[in-house]
Each structure stands twice: as C-alpha cells, then as structure tokens.
Amino acid sequence: MALITTAALCLRKIDFSESSQILTLLTDKLGVVGAIAKGAKRAKSGIGGPLDVMCLYDVVIYDRSRRDVLSILAQAQLLEFFPNVRKSYAGFCAAEALRELLLSIECNADDGQSVLLLAVACLRECGQRGREWQALARFAYRLLRILGVEPSFTHCVVTGREPSGRVAVSFSLDAMGLVSPPHDRGRSRQLTISARTLKALRALALDDPGSGIGVDAWRGAFTLLAWLVAQQGGRRLSVAPELDATKAV
Fold first, then answer.
1. pLDDT digits over 121-172, tens only?
2. Does residue 231 register a pLDDT over 70?
3. Domain made up of 2-81: CATH architecture
4. Contact assessment for residue 52 and residue 79, using Cβ atoms and an 8 Å cutoff
5. Cα separation of 107 and 33, whole Å?
6. What's the whole-model pTM score?
7. Residues forming beta bridges with residue 34, ordered by sequence position
8. Which burial class, exposed, middle or buried, applies to 150 when counting CB atoms under 10 A from its CB (0-12, 13-18, 19+)?
9. Given the DSSP bridges, would you call strands 71-80 and 169-172 parallel, antiparallel or unpaired?
10. So where are the chain's domains?
C-alpha cells in the first residue's frame, strides 16, 4: 500500500460501527476515493477526530484504490471549514448543491487537483452573501471544461454570429452551442435560453466579472450548466431538474 499525503475535501461520511467512519474524499493527488477512518470517533483517536462534510483536510492515506477496495485514512488535520458558508441558509444550500455535483462525476488522479481547487474557490465565494448562484454557475462552467465539454455561449455554432442579447436563443445539445434561426429548425435536442440567462453564460465564457447581472440570471445559468454536468455522469440531480424544451431557462 502506498502512503500518500494529500489535501482532501470530505464529500460524504457514513457512520461505521460505534467508532469508525466510511468517507468519500475529493483529493488533489488521487481524485475521488473512498476511505475508512478506523476509530475516528474515539476520544483518543490517532486520526485526530471524526471528519465532517465540506471541510478541507490535510490527510495521510494508505491508498488501496487500485485493488478496488476502501483506502485507509491514517491521519487528518483540519485546514478550513468555511465558516461563512455555514452562517446562512443560502450558503448552506449552495454548499449542498456543490457537494451533489461533485458526487455525480468521476474524478481521477489527473483531474483531482483542478477540481479540488475549483471546489475550494467556490466554497469561499459562496460564503459571500448574494454571490452564491454566481459562484455555483462559475464552478459548473469550469467543471464542464475539465470534463471535456466546451459549450459555446458567445456565438451561433453554424454562422459564427453573436446573438443580439435582447431575445431568447436556442441551444443545441448535439452541437453543444447556440443555434440561430433558421438553423434551429428541425433539431430535436435543443433548449431555449432566455436573454437574461444568456447574459450570465456569456460572462462566464468570456471570463467577465458579470457586474450588473441579476441573481435570477445566475440561477438560470447554474440550472443549465448543472444539468449538462449531470448528463456527463448519467445521473439525475435535485439541483439539476429536467429542463423543459418549451420553456426558456
């Protein structure tokens, strides 16, 4: 067994016996791994105490992932517990939405560091009141790119023209981009994006701060992006409900 020291965000914990935990960890060196923390809940635990979800730790792990069995957590030290996220209902809900997205994807060692850095940055931004939806939308957009999906929100994928930004536009799931009339006719897998949501999506694509964009626009952007993330993992998420093609996001 390889002994590895790595940063880890705890995504899930399950009580196992009276003193132990089974954990799902997002790590920068191994990606997402399952681990057992034996005796973590004992008063004199060698691990340093039980772990909590959506907290960042510095951990030492006996890696057994190649054997397709749980790794063993040998030690854990709390680095950050994101207190501001836990002070408001909006922050808590944002953290849970982030956690569900992270649990829906497959993340290997190659992507572990990138995804962990994005998740930590998102949690810190979610601790700022009023920025929760913007933080989640930015995370989901960047996560899609790590997963190899590059949606186009700046121009029509057929003509190359930019939308006016004043009316709703069509988004083709097959072309993974905007499609302007008449090229949107006859396409079976497409959604309608409202003008306000498109403004937020364009800001993400252009890496623009998005000043002046309303909360509803960021919420719509996150809804679409989280749904696209869910399609990559083939899972249905409570934060990404089925989208109605007849209604604008």
1. 999 999 999 999 999 999 999 999 998 999 999 999 999 999 988 899 999 9
2. yes
3. Beta Barrel (2.40)
4. no
5. 9
6. 0.90
7. 24
8. exposed
9. unpaired
10. 2-81, 84-144, 151-233
Which single residue is written with the structure tokens 């497959």?
106
Give dist(CA 172, CA 176) in Å, integer. 5
3-state secondary structure of 171: strand
User: What length is written for the chain?
Assistant: 249
User: Is the Cβ–Cβ distance between 181 and 158 less than 8 Å?
Assistant: no
CA 248, CA 190: separation in Å to the nearest integer?
A: 11
Q: In whole angstroms, give the CA distance from residue 202 to residue 154.
A: 6
Cβ 95 vs Cβ 103: under 8 Å: no
Answer whether 55's CB lies under 8 Å from 10's CB.
Answer: yes
Instruction: Return d(Cα 45, Cα 58) in angstroms, integer.
Output: 16
